[in-house]
């Protein structure tokens, strides 16, 4: 019999491999993205100290109020602009994008492109 790993196990393995290649620094922190079935989360992390500098998710009241659904491409794009605005307010312009083992398409791509358009560089 062929044993097949679950989708979440494969994603976690990809994420661990990716995290070996890069980490966030004070000059260029890491933009980490996670999506669940119902919501999306984005945070900007300085890995040298282990601090979350900026965070945003579709669970926040002001973000949720702007959205019809919290788990579609439009919600991801809006979250990308929100996280970029918060980062620019804190003086963060350059980040390293960590897609969290997810494939770069759909919601992840929409979030990344919206963050770029709002002023983040990666």
Q: Would you identify the regions where 5 or more consecutive residues have pLDDT less than 50? A: none
Class from secondary-structure proportions: alpha+beta
Cα shape: globular
Strand arrangement, largest sheet?
3-2-1-4
Radius of gyration over all CA atoms, rounded: 15 Å
* Largest sheet entry: 4 strands, mixed
Series of secondary-structure elements, N-terminal to C-terminal: HEEEHHEH
Task: Compute the separation of the termini in Å.
Answer: 43 Å
What does this structure look like?
The protein is an alpha+beta fold and 122 residues long. Helix content is 40%, strand content 19%. It has four helices and four strands; from the N terminus they run H-E-E-E-H-H-E-H. The chain has helices at residues 7-21, 61-66, 73-89, 107-117, and strands spanning 30-35, 40-46, 51-57, 96-98. Strands 3-2-1-4 form a four-stranded mixed sheet, with helices on both faces. A hairpin with a 4-residue loop joins strand 1 (30-35) and strand 2 (40-46). Helix 3 (73-89) packs parallel to helix 4 (107-117). The longest helix is centred in the middle third of the chain and has 17 residues, at 73-89. It is globular and about 55 Å long. The termini are far apart. The model has no long low-confidence stretch (mean pLDDT 96).
């Amino acid at each position: 019999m062929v044993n097949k790993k679950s989708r979440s196990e494969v994603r976690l393995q990809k994420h661990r491999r990716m995290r070996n290649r890069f980490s966030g620094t004070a000059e260029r922190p890491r933009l980490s993205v996670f999506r669940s079935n119902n919501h999306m989360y984005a945070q900007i992390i300085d890995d040298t100290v282990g601090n979350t500098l900026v965070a945003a998710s579709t669970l926040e009241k002001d973000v949720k109020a702007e959205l019809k659904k919290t788990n579609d491409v439009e919600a991801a794009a809006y979250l990308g602009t929100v996280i970029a605005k918060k980062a620019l307010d804190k003086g963060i312009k350059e980040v390293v994008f960590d897609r969290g083992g997810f494939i770069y398409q759909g919601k992840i791509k929409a979030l990344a492109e919206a963050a770029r358009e709002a002023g983040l560089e990666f």
